[in-house]
Design goal:
The protein contains 25 helices and no strands. The protein is an all-alpha fold.
Length: 742
């Protein structure tokens, strides 16, 4: 029996390693968003700063591990076998849940997830015990006040962080404007003094509150003399920064952002590490207590030992810190989560990941009305001065360099406001979530900076609501799934453990494959690589890829129609949907591509717009064939006659030949086959016209029915359109290449 529990401990630690990876991938947005969004330094420097903060925070985090042992439930009310199943259910749920959010690129709270997983599993075990005849009620087993505090924390974090972010960013922007470089000489050190004194206080209060080697007297002194500490810190930092700026031209804003990144990373590792390894370490501690009691029965050994203070092995913390650092460097999913947050707070227009929602539309509409009302009240001279501070300023950048999502002023405000709110929440013992605070501050500062204008507001607000909704779903899903998994583990015993571990592994593997494919597709669609030098090559690649898929999808549709194979037709429908999305993406972002071109290359943009339009029309023609064919087969209508299928085969053979010539010409940039192509197009159109007349004769002779005729003529008509669009595409690309060669 003891071997089984040793196996559970091993599984817990394996899950801990996996949980560290998925957890850090999600929580990295908390401390990297500002640094990466503002491009404060190259990626390696930012990662190095964060890595040092994480390693220090991990080593100092031992005091937090008691949360997993006794923060949510009362361990002395459970037996050893029960507590081990609770911990196992929690870890399996956590890995699946966080990995799912990472795959979707959505930030969530690892604190909320672990708390509600512990709550769900503990409630499940408590109900099993009560139904088995144990005296008592749920309240004796569960620390229900903690769950209510977390829910209150969600609401507090969202409302307070967003509001404070808006107000502080608005004030700071009024002081600095977007063209802040000149003013930095005069008031930069003052803002730096405020920022760094806040970050210093945050490090002391939040980052080191559980560090055991710092004397308690020092911590007490800081808490009791907060104002004096902040004042002296402000004066010291202000003088130091002014000197460094004067003597060495120190970039004060960069220093603030890197210091804030370090502080948040350290606090994250010091306080959130429990979310990833607290449960496995609690399981290991449980096994140690059980093993020390020689001959104890796991079904009757109460886990009273977990209620006391149990030291954490420093080696575990160091290993956890190293895993977290490697995850930061190599996790693609971490980059996806960060991208979501950065995109929602981006200053300029660009790709909008989220659509619009009725709530966002209503909010934007009323916000515009409110804004107009305020403008009528505020004196015009005052309004003019204020609006002048919010005039966008663009720094000149090399063509190959992508502009940051937002500037260093906003990045510094993000970090300072998040730090001060978290520090205040910690000192007042308010359950503010780090994730919620950092995200909502970023949203608030974006709004204050006019990043959410009328072109993007509905999409950004919808995205913000989607993330907030995900936070509440995290709590619900975590509780429900861990509750169910606990029941499975309890009633299926060893087989339940094996089953759920396999399920977790399969889910993580499938999500990894899905995310990898999604990332590769996004990389292929990346617009940042478009420039004067690459636009012809990019156009060629897009044309060749689309033409190839048109041929494959058309062949699938014909085979599916002939063999009445719904599977092939559904595959064709899926393929055409992907083509539609990609060509729509290009058309929707044509302005982004044109903006990257030089003033003397506007003609290139015009030709590229034509190419994209013809690609869209081609894909629409394929779609208007595939959908009717699928509906025809799905509704079990009579198949086309063999003679008709042979005729369609002839049409598509000629179409494929047309596409081959166009693809060859585009690839070689040699368009000398134009006469041959036009001659083939003429024959192709004559064939379609003769087949249309033949179908009319069949109708008159009552050889075919209505459904047959509608489908057949639809295919012929869209095939004709497709052929014409292919040739138009040839001409546009020809003109495009000739223009670039002038």
């Amino acid at each position: 029996m003891e071997t089984l529990y040793i196996g559970i401990v091993v599984i817990l630690f394996l899950l801990a390693a996996s949980d560290l990876i998925v957890g850090v991938s999600n929580d990295a947005v908390n401390f990297l968003n500002s640094a990466i969004g503002s491009k404060v330094a190259n990626f390696k420097v930012v990662m190095a700063v964060a890595a040092v903060g994480i390693l220090l925070g991990a080593v100092f985090s031992s005091g937090m591990m008691e949360v997993a042992r006794k923060g949510i439930f009362h361990p002395q009310m459970f037996y050893f076998n029960e507590i081990m199943l609770i911990f196992l259910a929690v870890m399996i749920t956590d890995v699946i849940l966080l990995d799912t959010f990472n795959t979707m690129g959505m930030p969530t709270s690892t604190t909320v997830s672990i708390v509600f997983e512990l709550l769900g599993a503990a409630v499940a075990m408590a109900t099993i015990k009560i139904m088995s005849g144990d005296p008592g009620v749920i309240g004796q087993y569960i620390n229900s006040g903690k769950a209510l505090a977390i829910i209150a924390g969600i609401l507090l974090s969202v409302a307070i962080a967003f509001t404070v972010g808006v107000v502080i960013q608005y004030i700071v922007r009024l002081a600095f404007s977007f063209n802040f470089h000149k003013r930095m000489k005069y008031i930069g050190a003052i803002w730096g003094g405020i920022s760094l004194s806040v970050i210093t206080y945050f490090l002391v209060i939040k980052g080191m509150k559980n560090v055991e080697f710092i004397p308690q007297d020092f911590k007490t002194f800081v808490q009791q003399n907060t104002f004096q500490v902040m004042l002296y810190s402000f004066i010291g930092w202000t003088i130091l920064l002014q000197l460094l700026n004067f003597l060495f031209k120190l970039n004060i804003l960069k220093f603030i952002v890197l210091a804030g990144t370090f502080g948040l990373a350290m606090a994250f590792a010091g306080n959130d590490l429990v979310n990833f390894i607290g449960v496995p370490i609690a399981g290991y501690n449980s096994w140690q207590f059980f093993h020390a009691a020689q001959g104890a029965d796991p079904n009757s050994f109460l886990m009273t030992g977990l209620a006391g203070k149990v030291p954490t092995n420093t080696l575990f913390l160091i290993i956890a810190g190293i895993i977290m650092i490697f995850t930061l460097y190599f996790s693609r999913k971490a980059k996806s989560v960060i991208k979501t947050s950065v995109d929602l707070s981006r200053q300029d227009e660009g790709e909008e990941r989220f659509g619009s929602s009725w709530m966002a539309k209503v909010l934007v509409r009323y916000s515009i009305k409110t804004s107009n009302s305020i403008k009528r009240v505020v004196p015009k001279p005052v309004l003019a001065v204020m609006e002048k501070q919010f005039v966008p300023y663009r720094e000149e950048l090399p063509d190959t360099e992508v502009a940051p999502a937002f500037d260093l002023v906003r990045a510094s405000v993000n970090l300072v406001v998040a730090s001060v709110l978290i520090a205040i929440g910690t000192s007042l013992k308010l359950p503010l979530s780090t994730t919620y605070v950092t995200f909502m501050v970023a949203m608030g500062t974006s709004l204050a900076d006019n990043a959410w204008d009328r072109e993007s507001a509905v999409y950004r607000i919808t995205g913000m609501f989607a993330v907030i909704g995900g936070w509440f779903l995290t709590a619900l899903i975590a509780f429900t799934v861990s509750f169910i998994i606990l029941y499975i583990l309890n009633y299926l015993s060893f087989f339940g453990i094996l089953l759920m571990v396999i399920v977790a592994a399969v889910v993580v593997y499938r999500s990894h494959v899905y995310h990898k494919r999604k990332t590769e597709e996004e990389t292929a669609e990346d617009l940042s690589s478009f420039s004067d030098e690459t636009i012809v090559d990019k156009s060629m690649d897009t044309i060749l890829l689309t033409l190839g898929k048109v041929v494959i999808t058309s062949e699938l549709a014909l085979e599916g129609l002939e063999k009445e194979d719904k599977k092939k037709l559904k595959k064709a429908k899926k393929d055409v949907k992907n083509m539609t999305e990609k060509t729509k993406y290009l058309k929707d972002h044509i302005n982004v591509i044109v903006e990257k071109l030089h003033e003397d290359s506007i003609g290139s943009g015009s030709y590229f717009v034509q190419v994209v339009d013809y690609l869209r029309e081609m894909v629409h023609s394929v779609e208007y064939v595939v959908i009717p064919v699928l509906n025809h087969v799905d509704n079990n209508h009579r198949p086309l006659k063999k003679e008709q299928m042979n005729e369609l085969r002839k049409v598509y053979a000629k179409l494929e030949r047309l596409i081959q010539i166009v693809a060859r010409s585009v690839k070689s940039r040699d368009f000398s086959d134009q006469d041959e192509l036009l001659s083939m197009l003429e024959d192709y159109l004559k064939l379609i016209e003769s087949l249309r007349k033949g179908q009319i004769k069949r109708v008159k002779n009552n050889v075919v029915g209505t459904k047959n005729t509608i489908l057949y003529l639809t295919i012929l008509n869209e095939s004709k359109n497709l052929g014409l669009q292919v040739v138009n595409l040839f001409k546009s690309q020809r003109d495009f290449v000739n223009y670039k060669n002038m």
